[in-house]
Amino acid sequence: RPEPAAHAGRVLAKPPVRKLARDLGVDLGSVVPTGPGEIVTREDVLEFASRAEGRSLATY
Amino acid sequence: MADTNGTEFDIVVLGGGSGGYATALRAAQLGLSVALIESGKVGGTCLHNGCIPTKALLHAAEVADTAREGAQFGVHTQLNGIDMAGVNAYKEGVISRLYKGLQGLVKSRKVTLIEGHGRLVAQDTIEVDGQQVKGKNIVLATGSYARSLPGLEIGGRVVTSDQALHLDYVPKSVVVLGGGVIGVEFASVWKSFGADVTVVEGLPHLVPAEDEALSKALERAFRKRGIAFSVGDRFAGVTQDDNGVHVTLESGKSFDAELLLVAVGRGPRTADLGYEQQGITLDRGFVIVDEKLHTGVGNIYAAGDIVPGLQLAHRGFAQGIFVAEQIAGLNPAPIVESGIPRVTYCEPEVASVGVTEAKAKELYGADSVETLEYNLGGNGKSQILATTGFVKLVRQKDGPVVGVHMIGSRVGELIGEGQLIVNWEAYPEDVAALVHAHPTQNEALGEAHLALAGKPLHAHN
Amino acid sequence: MADTNGTEFDIVVLGGGSGGYATALRAAQLGLSVALIESGKVGGTCLHNGCIPTKALLHAAEVADTAREGAQFGVHTQLNGIDMAGVNAYKEGVISRLYKGLQGLVKSRKVTLIEGHGRLVAQDTIEVDGQQVKGKNIVLATGSYARSLPGLEIGGRVVTSDQALHLDYVPKSVVVLGGGVIGVEFASVWKSFGADVTVVEGLPHLVPAEDEALSKALERAFRKRGIAFSVGDRFAGVTQDDNGVHVTLESGKSFDAELLLVAVGRGPRTADLGYEQQGITLDRGFVIVDEKLHTGVGNIYAAGDIVPGLQLAHRGFAQGIFVAEQIAGLNPAPIVESGIPRVTYCEPEVASVGVTEAKAKELYGADSVETLEYNLGGNGKSQILATTGFVKLVRQKDGPVVGVHMIGSRVGELIGEGQLIVNWEAYPEDVAALVHAHPTQNEALGEAHLALAGKPLHAHN
Ligand SMILES: Cc1cc2nc3c(=O)[nH]c(=O)nc-3n(C[C@H](O)[C@H](O)[C@H](O)COP(=O)(O)OP(=O)(O)OC[C@H]3O[C@@H](n4cnc5c(N)ncnc54)[C@H](O)[C@@H]3O)c2cc1C
Ligand SMILES: Cc1cc2nc3c(=O)[nH]c(=O)nc-3n(C[C@H](O)[C@H](O)[C@H](O)COP(=O)(O)OP(=O)(O)OC[C@H]3O[C@@H](n4cnc5c(N)ncnc54)[C@H](O)[C@@H]3O)c2cc1C
After folding, report:
1. Which chains touch B (3 or more CB pairs under 8 A)?
2. Residue C313 — left, alpha, or beta (φ > 0 → left; ψ -120 to 50 → alpha)?
3. Model-level pTM greater than 0.90?
4. Is residue B418 marked as binding?
5. pLDDT digits over C142-173, tens only?
6. Per residue in B268-299, pLDDT tens?
7. Does ligand 1 have an atom closer than 6 angstroms to the CB of B259?
8. Which of residues 85-104 of C touch A (CB under 8 A)?
9. CATH superfamily, domain at B8-145+267-337
């Protein structure tokens, strides 16, 4: 399965997606990219954020 | 006045300037009931005594310069003089159209506008002319006033921007005390209108908050325009008589002029409004708030110039929107102060967003910062406009662009693009991949990013 | 001429215009050996007969308008006339400075410049004045020429942009055939210079490639400026004599004027250059290429106006850079044609990037497209400039902004921001989160995105 792109140096994401990730507290490097050329898409970030939220709720 | 006895609003906003009316408009949009208390005119400083009237003067100044310099473009133009009554009528016309529009907005969004002077008398209550206006939340947005220096009294030939905006003549000569945004803007206007202008700044540079490269370039440009200035020498005193003012600096240097404009910054309008009595923390008059603009007291928030930081209208808008959304439970992302664009509308214009080179080195370490200057000499449209200047980029090495700094005629409009780049954490490569329209000035931003990405097109390696 | 016998270059570029010189500069930067063959002057149409000289004329026109209309700003200005010799000197001055800069760049990057007329004589060879220049790769970038219509002969009082740019007088009256970019730009210049202008366009609208909202707004603006136009009625014929031209349309309508400018588009300069003989496919003269700008023959690529699509200098730059990187093996991302910004520099300016509303509906379905218009009436800076117009956004419902369309004085500079939004597939919310500098024109872009995100600030819901 695809790996998070973090180790590849710069994580590829369109700039607004970069900002969205920051606003949602998502570390882009931990997101598995599904876009063309290993680019992290908006959907990837949103999906990651919703999973992260689910996890943190579950630990309460 | 609207009769509000017995009503409790979701939000009561004190002050109808940029910060206050933005809060009110956004809150109303989100379905909250809002009272907006204003003792003067909705729109506040920015619309009536700040941004808008100064930019109207600056445009009239541009018109005058254009007519003065038409020959270099082959156009026989002539400047016969400045009709200050006409300039003021134009300026008032712009204000009144925008004011009408704003009043219409406030009304159509069903904001309850309460006219009068308000004071905070309880954590949930503002008193206006004896009437108690209660809110589940209170937003303080009482704005700012033109400050002076200890012992420097405003009056007669010693004026602030408030009086300067209503002059019905062009002074023959002016000393401008303060080389910040407001000071250099007035200096620019008056020079274009034909006055002899001297700017006096105590710090080592004009526009001292900007990246030093911009300050130096503005100084060069002012020198070329014949705007005199003195930096790094503090104001000592002024005397005035029927003939004019006599200004002395600490070094003993002195200047005579018809007028002294005091433009040494703006102080928060927070005295005698009951803020401290309710437990709100003030620091040199500014309201201290947390990241969410909450004062730490009850449900009281603050927005605009009374909050320490950049005193800009659009920061007020942003904070107002933020507070409204925060109260409505939308959990908005906090505003990053350095991401707010800054424009100084003198000629040439100065514009920036993000951090300066010096600040970046402080944040990331001197070895982790890379900068690039792209000269407008290589930019076709700037050549056509006969302007000089440059774009300076600051990036984190192998990281995003963290600062965009520009100087040149009309570059203020390029900051829209600059702010997306900085706030969206774009890499030079992201911008370099997009070809800019030829021949525009924004192409200079494109070229600068191409160069920073290691692939300059119209620039030497 | 440089003696290149025996050398084989990594790339030989035929034509030193925007497309060709960008290829050469980028390739040299990437360490490839490059020959650039040019029969005229490096810089091509754009620098010598296109973008730059027209924009210089348009700036002189703006200066004239400013001097004509100073009174409304309270500035006593006067326009005493246009000195075409002076205008031309200014224009030539701008060109020659930029030309010198470009020559310096070509030299410093060690591009071998070969002066002369070249022909493709083998898949890897261009012949110039009997000399064979061989390249591992060939890039064709021979550009375009001003087209005419069948039976419409250029000469005397019937001119194209080539002659129009060198007129040493302001015509009393002009008929402009063609309401596209070049036509409306010249119409705008001449009107500002005092001529009576009539634009004749066979399609139903001026600037017919733009979103219909922009076309209609430009027509209103031209009407207000007193620029006459006729649309939806095709050219039938013209006669000329010592007094002027007599132009007739298919409907029988006719116009008399001192001059007829033919601005009906530009044809590819590909005839008699040996292209077909080497197996290259031409379609109506244009060179057919794949997504990677490869012709399908040997290692022959094409860039610029000879490739079907937008005929813009910066598209030429982008294609040139692309081809160089492709040849160097960098595997660059293909250029998205609709993401290239487009600016028409007439007064008011027209600017757009991305797709029109009509095109978006075609692509995504009529129900999946949302649009928004933000009127510059609510924009302080536009009020100060006394301009009208609007920003129109097109988005995919619940998706990104796919088109930004603008009209108004100086809006061409806002397209830099527009192109980031469209090409980076920003959502309205992404832009709405960033407060724009007040009072700027780019603030109108911010307000439009706020409104499209459902949270208008200075606009009614
Ligand atoms: C000359 C000048 C030029 C400027 N140019 C620019 C520019 O180009 N761009 C830019 O971004 N910024 C500019 N500014 C700054 C800008 O005007 C301020 O940042 C902005 O107005 C701050 O908004 P605010 O809502 O905090 O305060 P204000 O606009 O000052 O509004 C406060 C309002 O509260 C009302 N008020 C105060 N106390 C009470 C009370 N007790 N009861 C009832 N009502 C009360 C006041 O009447 C006022 O209307 C300029 C300022 C000046 C002076
Ligand atoms: C009036 C006018 C205004 C314009 N305004 C704008 C504008 O504002 N913005 C914009 O983006 N675009 C504008 N354009 C379009 C722009 O000029 C072209 O898109 C651009 O020049 C195309 O670049 P190119 O390299 O394909 O061709 P060209 O610039 O035409 O260059 C081709 C070069 O090849 C040379 N050449 C041709 N054949 C040979 C041969 N056989 N041997 C040797 N050399 C040869 C020619 O001498 C020429 O220098 C304008 C065009 C015109 C006419």
Report:
1. A, C
2. alpha
3. yes
4. no
5. 999 999 999 999 999 999 999 999 999 999 99
6. 999 999 999 999 999 999 999 999 999 999 99
7. no
8. none
9. FAD/NAD(P)-binding domain (3.50.50.60)
